[in-house]
Design goal:
There is one protein chain. It contains 22 helices and 28 strands. It has a seven-stranded parallel β-sheet. Strands 8-14-13-9-12-10-11 form a seven-stranded mixed β-sheet, sandwiched between helices. By secondary structure, it is an alpha/beta fold. The longest helix has 23 residues, at 215-237. It is 33% helix and 20% strand. The chain folds into four domains: 8-187, P-loop containing nucleotide triphosphate hydrolases (Rossmann fold, 3-Layer(aba) Sandwich), CATH 3.40.50.300; 199-372, Rossmann fold (3-Layer(aba) Sandwich); 406-545, no CATH class; 567-751, Trna Endonuclease, Chain: A, domain 1 (3-Layer(aba) Sandwich), CATH 3.40.1350. Mean pLDDT is 81; it is low at 324-330, 449-463 and 735-752. Helix 1 packs antiparallel against helix 16 (480-494), helix 13 (406-421) crosses helix 17 and helix 13 packs across helix 19 (535-546).
Length: 752
């Protein structure tokens, strides 16, 4: 897309959508996308990629509400995909549908009584235009935006009439449906990408002892003071953002609005001064360009009219006056204040969070439920005062660099295949060797299906069912999506762009590329079949090739950023509130840090070890995927840089700092539980960092045979029977368990 670089989670969602609407077997796809995740950008990218492979598709993008969400979406497509065909309902009725159209239609224009889009008139109606499109062999893909708002019989009958190949339903509140493919964007990914605030503070600084004379004025005072503090922080950073307070009033509230206006006037907020705005269906003042970061209004009074589809990232504070509204509306309203105005965090508590003030208990409960996790609770934890000055040197990099160039990358992959499979310039022999190692060469695609009588659909019966292989002929048109899916699977594992991954494959295996160092000479049809049939093996080999141990000196200093890092003064954690025997880890540098946080087995064991070892003073559990957390940088074999966030920072009784990474260990049969194929690269990077900055380091793994932890800080080896792995307690002499023995109380550990 023109001028847009998608975040990793957005790329992942696009690929999942492409898979679901190409190789998936379910007609409906549900996408749960938190407000602020860039839903429109994701859908536009999906449309762009889908139309590359399917020339006869038509997209119909259905939007809700009385607003102009369809025009907003259409204008974004014109901006970011200027060469794509867009239409509104009027243009569809006048011109009809054409191949590769994207039609943006508001439900109101086709379902509301009095509208003519579905009526029999002198000009063709929507039904006739749909019939024409079907007669031309066009296929419809329906996108239902904010799908929770238009689940009516009439709306569904219109969708059914279009006979779409797929229906993509998108909302922040979409729930799972066993009849549909479900794609969920994790809110944590959106937060870590810097697109939305880290947390929502509800009624901050409200005291139980507060005696109210006017609850509205009290809430407004809190909001105005908070806005003033936020504004001062923006000024300090030189950021041109005028933070906005949204005051949400009940639907029938004319008298209340007058009261609010009077309170605000006493505080010098008026329409005449242009620092106050109002947006009601029947009344609008000072709302032109109010979404702009430096727009003049500091306070906006609103009702439900702008709850859906309105994007104003500078909105930071919501004052919700007493009312009973729907949960869906609540969610949408909260979403208005969760966006970051410059699409990144500032490492500033005031600016990286948003704020709600309300005395509406039902509303507060609904918000907590919606923002919570179905399985786990989330809470904010705060740093203990004595650790506020602790920090380390942190290493990061500019994401614009994408590793070696194509020639260098190809040499790495090409060399890997030669070394592993002993390939030569003899293409016939190469094919024989690769076949002997599991690669399949044919001009058909293999699919496996179950053929049997299954009485009960359980794992045992399915496991023993008769599986038969079904071959299908390759069509570059029909199988284009399958090829893209297979290559995307590979590219996502190695951090390489789709186009570059495809080029590497073509240079090694496809006859159509003019390159002299091919291993085999496949035709276009054979290449499609090769990539699709060998998806898993290619993924493994490509990942293994780029994960070969790399020397850290390959990273040029000008490609790195070395900055001062301090532990975040606040963080939020997921924890199991239902866990019995929950205790607070006193050695954590955060207040009220529970042992019930959600983490891996080796991490749980390590925290337990730290808490109960008298030679450890404190520990810090590092986060990941965010600039807030401690990171270093490693490279893979193709010089692609990756951030590495070690799991723990520990201080021993001698005030020596340890940086610890935990990995899966060995099970009782001696099999490795470590799934990180890049572990050696991370080990070397941390080893070099420890030398440079005079800290201790180690990789820690669990050993099932004796339920103990082992540490390695010399040369990494996967085999834990190697002498490089020593009992963790040997590194902390005078080891003494203060409470209970780790081994003897394994059941307790397992519960954590």
């Amino acid at each position: 897309m023109q001028g847009i670089k998608l975040k990793n989670f957005q790329i992942d969602t696009v690929n999942k959508l492409l898979d679901a609407t190409s190789v998936g077997n379910k007609k409906e796809v549900l996408v749960q996308a938190p407000t602020g995740s860039g839903k429109t950008i994701i859908l536009l990218s999906y449309i762009e990629e889908f139309l590359k492979e399917n020339k006869n598709a038509i997209f119909v993008w259905l939007t809700p509400g009385k607003g102009d969400l369809e025009e907003q979406s259409k204008n974004k497509m014109i901006k970011f995909l200027p060469h794509h065909s867009t239409k509104n309902i009027q243009e569809v009725l006048l011109q009809g549908f054409e191949a590769k159209d994207t039609a943006f239609i508001n439900w109101e224009t086709i379902t509301k009584k009095g509208n003519n889009a579905l009526k029999e008139t002198e000009r063709k109606n929507l039904y006739e235009r749909v019939r024409e499109a079907h007669n031309c062999g066009y296929k419809f893909i329906i996108i239902v935006d904010e799908e929770h708002l238009n689940k009516t019989v009439k709306a569904e009958s219109i969708i059914e009439y279009m006979q779409p190949e797929y229906i993509v339903r998108v909302s922040a509140t979409t729930k799972t449906n066993k009849e549909a493919e479900f794609i969920k964007i994790d809110e944590l990914e959106v937060i870590n990408a810097g697109l939305i605030t880290r947390a929502l503070y509800i009624n901050e600084n409200v005291s139980n002892q507060t005696a109210l004379t006017n609850e509205h004025e009290y809430l407004l005072n809190l909001a105005i003071n908070k806005r003033r503090a936020i504004k001062e922080e923006y000024i300090k950073l030189g950021v041109q953002v005028n933070p906005l307070i949204i005051i949400q009033v009940p639907s029938k509230s004319d008298d209340l609005i007058k009261q609010i206006e009077k309170i605000l006037e006493e505080k010098n907020y008026t329409y005449d001064r242009c620092n106050l705005a109002i947006w009601l269906s029947e009344r609008k003042e000072n709302i032109e360009n109010i979404e702009n970061n430096n727009s003049l209004p500091s306070i906006l009074i609103m009702k439900q009219a702008i709850s859906t589809g309105w994007d104003c990232p500078r909105a930071k504070i919501l004052v919700k006056l007493r009312d009973n509204m729907s949960e869906d509306f609540e969610t949408q309203t909260i979403g208005r204040i969760r966006r970051m105005p410059q699409a990144h965090h500032y490492d500033n508590v005031l600016l990286d969070n948003c704020y709600l003030y309300t005395f509406d208990e039902k509303y507060e409960t609904a918000v907590k439920q919606e923002l919570g996790n179905n399985a786990y609770d989330t809470k904010v934890i705060f740093l203990k005062d004595e650790f506020k000055n602790f920090g380390l040197k942190k290493i990061t990099f500019d994401n614009s660099f994408d590793g070696f160039d194509e020639r260098q990358t190809f040499n790495i992959l090409h060399g890997y295949y030669i070394d592993k499979y002993k390939l030569t310039s003899n293409k016939k022999n190469n094919k024989t060797i690769l076949e002997a190692n599991g690669y399949v060469f044919k001009d058909t695609i293999d699919n496996y299906i179950i053929q049997d009588k299954i009485v009960r659909i359980n794992s045992d019966e399915l496991e023993n069912a008769n599986r038969i292989k079904v071959k299908s002929e390759v069509s570059t048109n029909k199988n284009g999506f399958e090829l893209r899916h297979s290559i995307n699977v590979i590219s996502s594992k190695i951090g390489m762009r789709y186009d570059r991954t495809r080029l590497m494959l073509e240079r090694m295996f496809f006859r159509g590329k003019l390159f002299t160092r091919k291993f085999v000479d496949l035709s276009l049809i054979e290449f499609y079949a090769f990539a699709i049939n060998n998806e898993e093996l290619l993924k493994h080999d490509f990942q293994e090739a780029v994960s070969q141990k790399a020397r850290q000196i390959k990273i040029k200093l000008d490609e790195l950023k070395i900055v001062d890092w301090k532990v975040p003064e606040m963080d939020y954690i997921k924890y199991d509130s239902k866990m019995k025997d929950t205790i607070i880890y006193e050695k954590s540098i955060y207040k009220n840090y529970p042992n019930s946080t959600i983490k891996s087995k080796s991490e749980r064991m390590f925290e337990y070890f730290c808490e109960n070892n008298e030679n450890i003073k404190w520990f810090y559990k590092n986060g990941e995927l965010s600039s807030d957390y401690f990171s270093i940088v490693y490279v893979d074999a193709v010089n692609h840089k990756w951030h590495f966030y070690p799991d723990f920072i520990v201080c021993d009784k001698n005030n020596k700092i340890w940086i610890i990474e935990t990995k899966g260990g060995e099970n009782n049969t001696g099999e490795s539980k470590n799934i990180d194929i890049k572990v050696e690269n991370k080990f070397e990077a941390l080893k070099e960092y420890s030398k440079k900055y005079n800290v201790n380091f180690g990789f820690v793994r669990d050993y099932d045979k004796n339920n103990s932890l082992y540490l390695c800080n010399t040369e990494y080896t996967e085999d834990m029977k190697n002498d490089n792995w020593r009992l963790l307690k040997e590194f902390f002499w005078n080891f003494k368990i203060q409470k209970v023995d780790l081994k003897d109380n394994w059941n307790y550990i397992e519960k954590i």
